[in-house]
Design brief:
16 helices, flat, 482 residues
Length: 482
């Protein structure tokens, strides 16, 4: 931006403040407080011409230059030894470009304002903060970190390699749940906030192991933090279960073979779904779960116990935990198993002697680089769980013949027979073309004739609705087979 204009010095502010060593947490804290003050979350990008510069655009905001400098001048100057900060904006009345530079010299920081006319700007709007990093590699890591930032919670979840690119600073004190590291503006962010900060893609990767076994995975973003008062999370789960069963056919899911799964505090919610839910799953998987009444220790509201909620309507359960767990004592799992046994509810339970809390799959690829997050014995829970699920849901059927029946074999024209087998019938052609006129073109027709119409409709440029498909099917069935 500065290359396009010739700026004139307009103002220079000197502030006394002790020098500090800039860190990743300091960077996030400054930006978190800046966006909160401006009431505008930034749009993060990287300069295409200068690959070592990360840009943050704050739209729809305005402030006085004096307030901005007094509030954030020293903090932005503190960043300059590692991330040189330049701030650009526009003076709303004259539409003149404004440029602020921040620098530190020992115990003093300098803020230099420049404008095209040399006149000091009273108000600026549409701010763009440019951070020049030491290399394009570091800039890429900073961009990834800031784009992952949950500005409301002041927390970012990123790939572990991003932390390595930033000098190993990114959240090594917070490896839970293992596959991702966290960086926060707060010293000890709660586990619920960490999980909420994961992007959808990151959450899906946590469940890839189940996806690989042929299970669909649905991720519940339930109420946490100030919204977590029970039963709000359970109400979220009930709504999600009802939606999954409502959409079961469209989402290729068996509504009678749904298991809930959760770990730690999430294990409590999974257990609540199976014991108290209005829309219960068909099985529940509880990893080192909280099952006794609990309050404090990172939970914003008290949660009820599960053991006394077990009855004859409770769904079958798979439980696992470790004897060494210091955060959620193993008694939580043992008491839950006893309650299930007392009420005749089928369950399988595995207690592993060694292993800390929060091991998840306990595999190297989700260890976050920590040796004590790897435990071959505890890792056995996953194949054991898959075997248990097979006893509950039985193997998925694979006895269908991968062949589309012809109209002659089926004895009827329909949207479920091979289109090629009925395309020569003129009445069929006209009926189909009335609903799918693009099949007049051989480019479309030749491809469609290898399918049945119900399946081909997924590729048709102007996809028919379910009602239109059924109407087409009724019309085809009314035509005698020749």
């Amino acid at each position: 931006m500065k290359e396009l204009h010739v700026y004139q010095p307009a103002n220079c502010i000197q502030l006394d403040s002790p020098a500090v060593n800039p860190t990743v947490r300091m960077l996030l804290t400054v930006l978190y407080e800046l966006q909160h003050w401006l009431k505008a979350a930034p749009i993060v990008s990287r300069d295409t011409e200068n690959g070592s510069t990360v840009c943050l655009l704050f739209r729809d905001c305005a402030c006085t230059g004096e307030d901005l400098c007094q509030m954030f001048g020293s903090a932005l100057a503190d960043l300059s030894p590692r991330w040189k900060a330049d701030l650009y904006g526009t003076e709303p009345c004259s539409q003149e470009a404004v440029w602020y530079r921040f620098a530190r010299e020992e115990a003093q920081c300098w803020i230099r304002e420049s404008t095209l006319s040399g006149r000091q700007a009273e108000t600026i709007q549409s701010l763009c903060l440019c951070l020049t990093c030491g290399s394009s590699h570091e800039a890429e890591a900073v961009q990834q970190l800031l784009q992952a930032m949950d500005w409301k919670r002041g927390l970012a979840a990123v790939e572990w390699k991003c932390g390595d690119s930033l000098g190993g600073e990114s959240g090594r004190e917070l490896p839970e749940p293992g596959l991702y590291c966290y960086e926060s503006v707060f010293e000890c962010p709660e586990a619920e906030a960490c999980l909420a900060a994961l992007s959808l893609e990151q959450k899906v990767r946590l469940w890839m192991a189940f996806l690989a076994e042929g299970y669909n995975a649905y991720i519940l973003n339930y109420s946490v933090m100030e919204h977590a008062e029970f039963p709000h999370p359970l109400e979220d789960a009930d709504q999600a279960m009802a939606l999954i069963r409502q959409k079961a056919e469209d989402w290729n899911t068996d509504p009678g073979k749904i298991a809930s799964i959760g770990f730690s505090a999430g294990g409590h919610l999974s257990g609540a779904m199976g014991t108290m839910g209005k829309e219960r799953p068909n099985a529940m998987i509880l990893g080192y779960p909280v099952t006794t009444p609990h309050k404090g220790a990172g939970l914003p509201y008290p949660i009820p116990g599960l053991c006394d909620k077990v009855d004859e309507h409770t769904v079958p359960a798979f439980l696992f935990a470790t004897y060494d767990d210091q955060l959620v004592p193993v008694e939580n799992t043992i008491k839950m198993g006893q309650a299930l046994s007392d009420h005749g509810v089928p369950f399988e339970m595995h207690i592993f002697q060694k292993g800390k809390h929060g091991l998840a799959l306990a595999k190297q690829f989700c260890s976050a680089g920590y040796q004590d997050n790897i435990n071959d014995s505890v890792a056995a829970w996953f194949p054991l769980c898959i075997k248990w699920l097979e006893t509950q849901f039985h193997p998925f059927p694979a006895d269908l013949e991968n062949k589309i029946p012809t109209a002659q074999e089926a004895g009827v024209y329909s949207i479920d027979v091979l289109l090629d087998s009925m395309w020569k019938n003129e009445a069929v052609r006209q009926t189909v073309l009335a609903m799918m006129p693009k099949l007049e073109d051989p480019l479309y027709a030749d491809f469609a004739r290898t399918f049945y119409l119900r399946k081909y409709n997924e590729y048709y440029p102007e996809k028919l609705t379910k009602a239109q498909l059924l109407a087409l099917d009724d019309a085809l069935r009314a035509i005698p087979v020749k």
